[in-house]
Amino acid sequence: MASCFLPLADLHAAPQEKPSPPDFTNDVLPVLTRHGCNTGACHGAALGQKEFKLSLLGGNPRADWEAITREFRGRRISRALADESLILLKPSERVPHKGGRRLPTDSEGYAILRRWIEAGAPFRTEKRELARIEVAEGLRVTAHYSDGSARDVTKWAVFTSNDDAVAEVDEHGRVTMKLPGETAILVRYGGHLVAWRAVKSHGAGVKFERRNAIDEHVERHSKELGIQPGPPCDDATFLRRAHLDLIGTLPTPDEVRAFLAKPDRDALVDRLLARPEFAAHWTYRLGAKPDRWDAVVRGILTTSVDFYRVDNPETIAENAARRFLGMRIQCAQCHNHPFERFTQDDYYGLAAFFARTRIRNGQIVTIDRGDLRVPPAFPGGVAPRDGERRLVFAEWVTGNRQFARALVNRLWAFLIGRGLVDPVDDFRTSNPPSNGPLLEDLAAEFEKDYSIPGILRRIATSNAYACLREPRLLDPPVYLDAVAQATGVPGRTPIGSLDSLATTIELIAGPTINAKLPKMADFTLEEMYLRTLSRFPTKDEIRELRTREEREDFLWALLNSKEFLYGR
Amino acid sequence: MDVSRREFLTAGALTVFFPKLTFSGAKADACIVIWLNGGASHLDTFDLKPDAPSEYRGDFAPIATSLDGCRISEHLPRIAKVMKKLALIRSMTSLEGNHDRASHLYWTGHHPSPALVYPSLGSVAAKTFGVGDELPKYVAVPTPPEYVGAGYLGTAYDPFSPRGDFALSISEERLKRRKEMLESLNALGRYEQAFALLTSDAKNAFDLDREPPKMRERYGHHTLGKTCLLARRLVEAGARFVTVNDAGWDTHDDNFRRLKDGFPGKLPGLDQAFTALVEDLDSSGLLKKTLVVLMSEFGRTPKINSKAGRDHWPRANSVVLCGGGTRGGQVIGSTDAHGELPAERPVDPADLAATVYTQLGIDPKTEFKAGARPVRILEKGEPVRELL
Questions:
Q1: Which of A114, B128, B154, B266 is the most exposed place for a label (fewest CB within 10 A)?
Q2: Which pTM was predicted?
Q3: Contact B350, B109 (CB under 8 A)
Q4: Can you tell me the ipTM of this complex?
Q5: DSSP H or E run through B80
Q6: Residue B374 to chain A, least CA–CA distance (Å)
């Protein structure tokens, strides 16, 4: 029997309250999300709490509606006596609730739930779907719907700060800047997630030479942050850095002498990109020859050679997403991805492209049977064109802007020391790039011809490359090659990360360097500096090395110095 | 009444009505964690259900132990004899069924987060007590399992895992000169400890050949036996936190054969090595000040699967502790008839972490800086009072 009287709460309803009964997806579920009912720590956990399971952060409205209205023999709601519904008794703590008082009886959320129950707890009462959310200064959150309508949903959004030390946000969306810096405020509503950038300048003035478009982006970002980038490095440093970054070897003493006499940096970059070592080095770094990259990756994704010994569709999709789109999608295997707009259906839709892949006799073949719970589909439920599944998938990957972003970000990380998105395989809305416009510019440039040398050239000839640098230890294989080159004695004994005590012990006591020292030629002090640190010793660094043993020991010291270990 | 006196009395009243565990200092100098990598089946080790239907109880029968009323797997007879010294928690429980996530939870006391990589128990110990001047204070043998690293504390607090021996191919005199030459180029950093370890007696702690053959026999000539003996030597030499990584417990198929058989089987090997370690520490007087923890990232499914195996089951898990000031000779908590859920006294991995920290004298509320931000080593978790 329908109630004849409007509940008291409705008489005080705000003007924008709708006359029609609340829609579960658009009106009721946001209340539950806002009040933390469906977090991973509470009813959104894998097994729920006390037999009541909701989808994580409201990812599956239909399942949640059924859990509330159908499960537990329908005892969670009481249409006749709405206030006696378990779904209202518990969060208002009128009965014991481990989750505490989430919905006081005089709260707006409680009123919405009650109105919904009295209306018969329907699932959908309106056709419009949430299309996107928009965040503006304040913060104000506006929901935009599929029918063109919009409304302010600030009071139902969930706000978190990525870094409380830089910016705090309260439950009403008010942002307070604390320490200078930048961070993202994450705004969640209705299964959507938007990152809003909060910046506080350090206050320094910025003077930065602009040599190309990259430098314009870096200058603008530096000005926003109020941080003056360091000065450009000197010529010897640039020479060594460019060699290690672009071709993975040290310059020879003759190359050092020649460059210091005529330090044309742009010409050096061009020469290095044309060196035969370029292809080998980038094959090592990227896992494949650095030819036109979209074609290379399509080849990898459709190869018949079984490199990976994996025929599990989920794992193949995860690896492909991580390697070529820079995204970790495995969270979405069990529930919608909590930190990105990527659902469980999206996950299985991608994995389904590999459901018919098998490994037979060391070859990858496609059979004509087998499917996962959903047919192959791109995120958002976009249906693929007809055709061989792996090829269709490969075309989608390589034609995607995200493919370009992921690759240029990795190149930036290799050259500057840290990606614009860091870690480089962890792109998500909640992990925004440190310089979004720069990333988009590089990605758009890359999409013109998918040329890796092209992007490397742009980065290496920018002023940013000479100025910005996160110090980074050499990769073990690069270090080992450098040791072989500097001593003139080929061969490598494998070592672990240069960052571990075990490796340090190995370098002191083990054969990695010690086996080479007796075999190397007798170098002068100047030759040692040129061969290891790619520069001349300063006046203060001149020292006497009288015996062969002393010379060996000093070369050992150079090979273990910070200047050598770090690519600078 | 002046303000300060009023406040004092109010505070006193609160203490009476809400007794809180105040932080009282270290009971243990060191901690050894034996990590059964892969998730050890609680139903086939320490929490058998002989009365459950055959599709749950499995092939092993329980035997009596030196602790009245406590029965454990028939394939752990030596551990059964020393049960009186041990504390067994049968009601460890979590929701993390993925190896990575569960390992992270047990090693750090936190669920993994994309925002921050949390430091492990041993890394926090290294940060608190220092990494050592010669012998590293935080060691992982034979190799570090996942998530025992330092996270946001920085790689200086990662565990040390020795590779090979420490044999020197040059004279100590030349070694000294190399050190001086390097120091003339830059500050030594990690090289300081490396040189010190190589030229000191501390490195002998890693040399098992210095142990009498009878002792090596007692622990067993297999990896777990050797690494447990190594752990004892390291603690004796001053290490504060040692992890012993034992692989092979992820028995999705052929569970019973893999646990029982082999050279040695998982259970016989554990039985021998763990008992040897406990008895050895006890007889040398080290057990009082050395906390020993035997743990795993989750238990395994009570219902045996179609491949005679058990799959991941985080809701019920067993952990054994002894020494380090803990009260032995007790069973804490229990699981239901099939070993599926805790029946009483559920214990969260964060509680276990809080216990380890407390025994080592590290306040669980301690904060360290992650970048600019101070972060607590534990956000939740209370030490298991029955152990203290």
A1: B154
A2: 0.83
A3: yes
A4: 0.86
A5: helix B77-81
A6: 9
